[in-house]
Amino acid sequence: MDKASYGNSGEVIIVNLQNHLLEYKKDGYTVFHDYLTVEEVQECCQAMDPQFDTLFSVNSNKPRVKIVPLLGYEKLAPLAKKHVTNSIMLDFAELVMGPCVQLDSFEVSGFPIRELGLTDSVDLWHRDAFNVTQTWIDHPLFSSKKRRPCTPRLACNCLTYLQDMTAESGPLRVIPGSHLDYTRIPESAERRVHVRERLLDVKAGAMVFTHNELLHSGTWNVSEHYRYFLSVYLCRFGLPHRDPFDLAAIEQLQKDARCRNDRRVLRLFGEDEEFMEREEISWQTMAEEDRRNVRSTNSNSETSLK
Ligand SMILES: O=C(O)CCC(=O)C(=O)O
Ligand SMILES: [Fe+2]
User: Is residue 99 part of a domain?
Assistant: First the structure.
C-alpha cells in the first residue's frame, strides 16, 4: 500500500507501507526517513528548547528529563495533537497491530550533554513495556529455543529524532531480529556494545517504529546540544496506559473525532464500546475458515472416531 501525504512545502511524499512491513517483520523495527520536514523539526526544537532549559537547570544531574504528557502542555498542544494523529503512523500501526491501537504515552525525552570520554557509551539494553519475552528469559531452556515465527505486537514505540543521529549525539542501537529470538543480555552486559548491534545514524526528522520485543538502547550524548526525541508509545486497545486521557487537548480531539465518526482516533484515547464484539466476529470468521479447510484423513483422530 502506497501512502501519500503532503510535506510542509506542498510536495507529495509517497511512503510504501508494505516495504516497511516486510522490514519490520524481519528486523523488529523500520525507519521512516523524512517523517518530519526540516521546518517541522525546527518548529519542535524551538517549542521544546525553553522547556528543556528549565528542566535541565533544575535537574542538572539527571541522565534524562521528560516533558510528559506532552498533550497536557497548553503551549505544545497544537504541535502534539498534529503529531499524535499523523495518518502515516496510525496507518502503519494498524497494519502491524490491527485496528486496535491505543495511546499509552506521548512524551519528549531530553538527554544532557556528557563529557567526550563517554562517546559511544551504551545507555541500557532493554525491551520496551508490554513485552513478554523477558517474562521467562531466565528459564534454563531459553538459550536452546528456536526463533518464533512471530511475536504478539502488543506495543510499538514511534521515536522521532530531533537532531541528526551521529557518533556525538548518540544513535539508537538495535539488535535486528531480537523480537523473534530469545536474545538475553545479562545484567553485567547491559551497558556494553553487542556483537549483533546496528547503530541507526538517521537524520533529524526520521521516525523509528519499533516492535516492543526488540532489544535496543540509546547512546550517550557528547554533542554540543541536548539530544531529544518525540516518543509516541502505542499499545493494544484495553492495555493500561500511562497518559491520562482527561486532558483538554485530548477532549478536543475526541470531540472532533465524534463529529466525523472517526473510530480509530476515539480508540486511540481508549473509547470503543463495540471493540470486543467486533473482534470476536473476526475471530469467528477465521476459525470457521480453518474448520472448513480441515481435510479428513485416517490419521485425523476426530474423523476416525466417527
Ligand atoms: O535513547 C534512545 O534513543 C532510545 C530510548 C528508549 O529506548 C526508550 O525511551 O525506551
Ligand atoms: Fe526503549
Answer: yes
